[in-house]
């Protein structure tokens, strides 16, 4: 497997989702699944770190007046209601577990909604690195993961969803997207498949 033209996009690895006291942790019906997503993701990053793969993290950070969510609905309304991802708060910060990888992870800022390409330099970052394959992981499967993956597909990337490195709000929703939605435009794979490829490389 050629990792030089592959990028892993880590979406929403922030304290408001992943910390034990994260104010959006309850968005997931079984919060233990969030811990498993993190464990799987960290194991994958450790395996990919010595390779030429690009590892890119992007999180949503919002101004205190939530200007970007002026016409929000659904979960974006929930984000505004509870004060999640507010600029300057610990909840908006990247989780400490990612910081251990230092500059091996490239951080893309500016995200204010579901799609990691909007209002960011993600497209430019991928182009400069000569990326052809994009793997997507993070939170939430039915929202940011789907929006980011579709945008990658529409930008002519070959897209894969790391199913065990992302979580939806419910197990049913996770299975529905992985079995019925993502296969329409992307590959769905388990991070263990990547680790097997690395072991045999």
Automatic annotation (TrEMBL):
InterPro entries xref list: Isochorismatase-like_dom, Isochorismatase-like_hydrls, Isochorismatase-like_sf
Keywords associated with the record: Hydrolase
A Pfam family per the record: Isochorismatase
Keyword DNA repair: no
GO terms of molecular function: hydrolase activity
Keyword check for Hydrolase: yes
Domain Isochorismatase-like per the UniProt entry, residue ranges: 6-192
Descriptive protein name: Nicotinamidase-related amidase
Species per Swiss-Prot/TrEMBL record: Jezberella montanilacus
Lineage, uppermost ranks: Bacteria, Pseudomonadati, Pseudomonadota, Betaproteobacteria, Burkholderiales
């Amino acid at each position: 497997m050629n990792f030089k033209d592959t990028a892993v996009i880590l979406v929403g690895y922030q304290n408001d989702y992943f910390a034990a006291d994260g104010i959006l942790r309850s968005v997931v019906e079984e919060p233990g699944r969030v811990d498993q997503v993190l464990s799987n993701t960290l194991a994958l990053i450790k395996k990919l770190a010595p390779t030429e793969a690009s590892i890119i993290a992007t999180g949503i950070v919002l101004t205190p007046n939530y200007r970007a969510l002026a016409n929000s609905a659904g979960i974006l309304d929930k984000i505004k209601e509870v004060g999640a991802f507010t600029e300057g708060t610990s909840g908006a910060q990247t989780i400490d577990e990612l910081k251990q990888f230092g500059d091996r992870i490239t951080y893309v800022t500016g995200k204010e909604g579901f799609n990691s390409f909007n209002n960011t330099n993600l497209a430019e970052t991928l182009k400069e690195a000569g990326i052809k394959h994009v793997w997507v992981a993070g939170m939430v499967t039915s929202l940011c993961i789907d929006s980011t993956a579709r945008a990658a597909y529409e930008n002519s990337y070959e897209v894969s969803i790391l199913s065990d490195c992302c979580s939806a709000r419910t197990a049913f929703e996770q299975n529905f997207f992985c079995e019925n939605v993502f296969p329409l435009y992307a590959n769905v794979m388990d991070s263990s498949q990547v680790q097997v490829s690395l072991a045999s490389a």
